[in-house]
Design goal:
Shape: globular
Order of helices and strands: HHHH
Number of helices: 4
Helix content: 55-70%
Mean pLDDT: 97
Low-confidence stretches: none
Oligomer: single chain
Largest sheet: none
Distance between the termini: 16 Å
């Protein structure tokens, strides 16, 4: 399962926000956001060039987006 912070990051990602915007909104470093995104991708099985789109679809399917 995703952690509460990963759910927050995924929600913003699904809204189309970039890592810089997510970092600013959640008051995190961009590196921390990148780590959360990588963890999210690993947990939902997303990879490669379509990972962000797959994560967005997953978020919407699971009521996060």
């Amino acid at each position: 399962p995703l952690s509460p912070r990963e759910r927050e990051v995924l929600h913003l990602l699904a809204l189309g926000r970039g890592n810089d915007d997510i970092a600013r909104e959640l008051v995190l470093s961009v590196r921390t956001v990148e780590r959360h995104v990588a963890n999210i991708y690993g947990k939902i099985g997303a990879s490669g060039r379509t990972a962000r789109a797959a994560a967005t679809a997953w978020a919407h399917t699971h009521g996060i987006g």
